[in-house]
Amino acid sequence: MQKNMKSIYKSYGHTLILALLMITAGACKKDGFLNVDPKGSLTDENTFATEANADLFVNDIYDQVPDMNNETQLLDQWTDNCGVGATWMTGQVLIRSNALNPSNAPDGPAVMFKWSENYNRIRRCNVFLQQAAKYRSHFSDEWYRQRVAEVKFLRALFYSFLYQNYGGVPLISEPLDNQTMGDKIFVPRATMEETLAFIEADCDAAAADLPTKPAATGRAAKGAALTLKGAVDLFAASPLVNTNNDPAPWIKAAASNKAVIDLTVYDLFPSYNGQFLAANNWNIETIFARGYALPRKGHNREGKQGPVIVYGVQQSWGNMQPTQNLVDDYQMANGKPITDPASGYDPQKPYVNREPRFYETIIYDGSMWQGYTFLSRIGGNNQIDLGSSSDISNTGYNARKTLDESILGQTSLGVSPGTSNYIYYRYAEVLLSYAEAQNEAVGPDATVYNAVNKVRQRAGLPSLPEGLTQSEMRVNIRRERRIELAFEDKRWYDIRRWDITTKGEAVLTHPQYGMKITPDANGKLTYTKVPVFNSTFSQHMNWLPIPQSAIEQNTRLTPNAGY
Amino acid sequence: MKRTPTIGNIFNQWWLSGLTLLLILFFPVLSLAADITITGQITEAVSGQPLPGVTVLIKGGTTGTQTDAAGHFTLKVPDNATLIVSFVGYESQQIPVAGKSVINVQLRESARVLNDVVVVGYGTQKRTSLTAAVSTLKTAEIVNKPVVNLTNSLVGRLPGLIATQGSAEPGFDGSNIQIRGAGSIGSTAPLLIVDGVPRDFSRLDPNTVATFTVLKDAAAVAPYGVAGANGVILVTTKTGKIGKPTLAYNGYYGIQNPTRVPKFVNSYQYALLRNEANANDGQPAAYTADDIQKFRDHSDPDGHPDGRPLDDIIMSNRPITYHNLSMSGGGTDYQYFASVGYQHQEGMWSTTYLNKYMANLSLTANVTKTTKVNLMANGYVEDQHFPGYGASSILDQAMRQAPTTPVYYSNGLWTGYIGQSLIGEIYHSGYHLNENSSLITQLSIDQQLPVKGLSIKAVVSYDNGPDPIFNNKTSFQREYRTPIPFWNVDTTKRPYEYVKGVQGNSKAQFYEDYSVNKALTYQGILNYMGHFGKSEITALAVIENRTVKYQTFRAQRINYNLDIDELDFGGPAAADATSTGLSNGQRQLGYVYRIGYSYNNRYFFEAAGRYDGSYLFAPDNRFGFFPAFSAGWRLSEEAFMKNIKWIDNLKLRGSWGESGAYPSSGGAIQTYQYLSSYNVNGNSAVIGGNTTQGIRESLQGNPNITWERARKTDIGFEASLWNGLLTIEADYFSEKRSNMLVSIGNSLPSEYGIGVGLVNAGIMQNRGTEVSLGSSKTFSNGLRLDLTGTFTYARNKLLRVYENDATYKNPNRRQTGRPNGTQFGLQATGYFGEDDFNSDGSLKDGIPVPTYGNVKPGDIQYADLYGPDGKPDGRIDANDITRIGYSTTPEIIYGLEPRLYYKGFDLDLLLQGSGHSSLYVSQYFVWPFQSSGSATELAYNDHWTPSNTNALYPRISGAPTSNNTQQSSWWMRNTSYLRLRSAELGYTFSSRTLGRSISSLRLYVSGQNLFTWTPHIREILDPENNSSNMNYFQQRVITFGINATF
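Output (structure tokens, whole complex):
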């Protein structure tokens, strides 16, 4: 009996040992055991296997176009058009405080001109161009031509951000590879001329193959490529670059802008401010824009830029704070500037009888927003914030243009419901660019008048008086451009290329003003211009500093002068 | 009648007395003293748990007994006898019987742990034969401390462990732990092991933890191969013990308050400061004299309020509670340990709180005489509740909000400031819920083999819970974000009107997020131990493989028309619903060995290592070999030392070896770096009116990526003197870590256009010392004093990190040769004075010109140290950057823990401090009006003015200027501190007063962070808050607790 138990016990024990050995053997696996699929990763080959796959790569490049409608700090804050919403913002703390240097080189709104970011964007273009050529046989001729053209336009756009802010930059047209290219990955800066030529060549190549009307909204068309070329040509012709005022660049700029007009694809949209509403996306005036769509690709522009207090509570951040300097540039309804004694301007009734675009662009004391009367006067619901202790405007004004009055600021901040386009280029700019270039090249001929007056006409202003001199026309075109394109992130480029940041009007070395409106006991208002920020700036800052890190990592880069 | 003594008589007397002597000597029971029967109970001094198996001996004899499962004993002894009560791992006690019939004894764990068994990788070792650097912590020391995250109990108590607790937010309050400092520029997180398997211990029930062990040197971490280089923390959980069933209750209730709350200006001070700023900036005054008067006299509480946002939102005396009931017992065939626990912690506001429910079961069965099976399951469910907004966002807003906006208006309505409402965010924003769960299960079978000393063990574990290496979790999250109502006062109306606004979404949105992390681990372990004369040989071989799978998905709905937080009730449009998800996995395969040889319990040699493979590397580069060697010499066993009576133990030991660390960067382990791949982005450009998918290059891969390689050397000695009165253990350690991942980004142009796979090229060295001291003395009046102290110093040095020329060639900026994390910035020299300027406001000749905008008197002046030519160039710019501070992680950590026991009272204090750490302070906390923020009282009282030129802060401006907010020495703070980290005072009732139903009872009061001394900081800042006070404030906790056994 006992013996029997023992043998059972013994065999039981053996079974256990066997089981244990099996478990431990289970622990020994071959190297293949360590294979874990990297899900969500693709290779060169499957990315460029079909048109449909490769289209996704191009989609991603389009997505690199800066997302300006979600940006907190817009570019007009860097200029005399706008104060900042908060005192930490780049436009005030770096740009208009004379504090730019390579260590704090700004990225720009939506990292628009961040150095490394643009080269990331450019690399995507270069990878596409390289890989699409490598896998050329996977694609139809039509698809290939069209997508290559789109990508070249996008590459030109990214280079234009660099060119217009830094000047000549390293021109990289294929993906850099440290394993095969050795020292050649360190590319020195090209000259201004070479950079311009590179952008022009991409624009030309793109324009040659792009359709006049894109197959889908959001894609670049021929007009976009031509307009971009016109914009960089105008920049290159302007005093900051064209220091000798050589007429040739002006002639070229006039021609390239005229090429857009000659397409006869675009026209001015009837409603000046209405063109910025989602309902009018991709209207006849829009040449190139970034699109938005719900649910995950909407924007919150109204919440970030709209007026602060609405119906007694804070709705928005009020980051666009138009200055008195800008307000003073709006003409009277009769088309005369307020400095003209015949204009009928009354400094104590400053908002009476101004030109229509003023009312479409600026929220001022006594104007309505969402059915609410905005009062920036002392004691008002949006009383001018002289202490900068809240989001309420420091100038007494907020922006109206480009904002959709039907969107509540807090909703905008909460769910980003905006789907209106951010328009990079529209036809009115082309007209004004043409007029400016043509005026500089040959003087105020009829085509110049036609172009400017077309813009004024849509704005409800009388035509310019006949017989203006070239320089009088220049003053008018520059004013027209400032007003027409206010809050569209163009002024930063304009004041620099006109070289008026510290020279001439010296717009960045004069104080920015706000309007303090004081009611007396009877409710009579007294309007006083008050300085709200003393802008300071240096001439060399017209070119942004190459970031310290870029200079440190690529010793072939030369810093911009003055830094 | 007197009898004359005869020889016979003499003999008789001698014989009798001799016999008596013999009887007394050898048969004490028969001695002439009266015998009595005594009973008693032996309990654990700290926990009050009864101790079974304790030996009770009569001094000078062999008679004795052992306690039963309930710790009881009965023994017949002479009434003048002395009892010797002893138990492995505990201090022996001698107790005179002195006629007593009941003798209860409390045993304390021995500070002198000569005979302890220490948990090491994949097994245990005798402490005497240990040749590696290993520290252990008694769980009794931390079990009653009111901390929810166990990582917060370790600092100052374990030599070699450096820990900082950056935030105290419930659920996110874990300490950042480094073993022997930072050994890598990548992740420095130690490997966490619970019961032999990688698992996170931080949120286990403290009453289920049996041991804490820290493995530090190469020899100790060798079994962990590619994952061991940062040190290993081993935790074992409790198992059953033989004895009658005992039930124990441990619990506490406590209150929490922030250690330090910064003080901000009141509205009167704010208005004055604003006007001063405007005057400095040449702008009109912001506030009239009338405004200022009203702020001061509170006559217009809603029009001219005086808000105290931080004070108003932080509630005081926030509860924290803990209850645990455990049961343990068993016979020789089976033993069990079971426990349930509950923990509740409330945050600084009532919408932050957590509840944790914990359960644990361990069953051990001796299935055959040679087979032992253990089944363990340990789990918890933790519900963390937060408002819809995070604590850092709330604290940021509270510090930003100007006092000219109150938190509540006089009618009780809550306000908004800059469109954000503090009260709204805390109480009316919906909620965020994390339901984290963990269930770790393990079956182990231990089989002795027919060969003597040889056994095989198989372990299978299946866990569903947090991953200690990749930080994935098993959790269910819900977030319901509602529109946040708030009110602004419209002072243009008479009477004032209070207008309702809404922050955030106009309609509620909701998401649910499920994540599951599951790990399956197999271990096969072969153990051998044999004695051959004076030699002893031990051997261990392990095969281990591990598979981890992680999956997560999220469903979101927006535009709720109904205020019901149910996924299905979201808006009806297709675009109102979105979902996302991903999955990934990990695999590891390792072969471990350890061979030990010792001679005469005097000389010890050990070799250990692991051949280890991980999925992280390219298929041909997956396996690595990580060996270590160590030796020990117990000098005290040598003949020439034997007669030095005051030396109980003296051991020298040393180790050398290589271990590995997963390649990491920015603290995160890098996966699939060996592939050059493309990623899919599901939310790309809008084309044709619709969002599209996009594909982008993710990385230029590095097919050669491999593990970090650590070469570690350790020399240590251990001594125990004067019969345990003093124990010392000291180690010197040195490590060279190579193959650290560095970005070669610095060696590529920033025009490169894409991230490049990191390269294993960085080298750093880490050296230091650690010392622990222990002392224990019992005084004649019964007072016992135990003292333990730990000291750790670790300094690392970057040997090769691929700097670019701009920093490498500038000796001030060079990182190579300096400790990792050294902070760099401009060297502030003071303020510009009136004398530094010409009449036109420009700086006088010879004064270096800052390039951060125009400066004025009262702005910070910086030292001109360097220029493009290597000499000062008259400009303050990036070239002038230099070392301005230590890393934020201290190089020195020390702790001193005295414990006193006297007549049932016990007192335990932990004084803990740190040194060599710096914090860069910024934002509203030191820069008045930054981002339209508020200002501190300190800034109000001590900023530069022409009459206060020696101020703490520069001149006031409407916004801090770029010049003054440059990263500079001006804003570096030395965060060295000394704090009374914990204190505990307890009283244990003797069993006589308790009656039969309770076998032991101890009451205590305990505190955490009771007092903190920061001699170098004037700001009101907890030294561990590593985010300029923006992290959830550290808490001072006071609790009242009970330990009872039945």
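Chain B touches chain A through 132 residues (CB under 8 Å).
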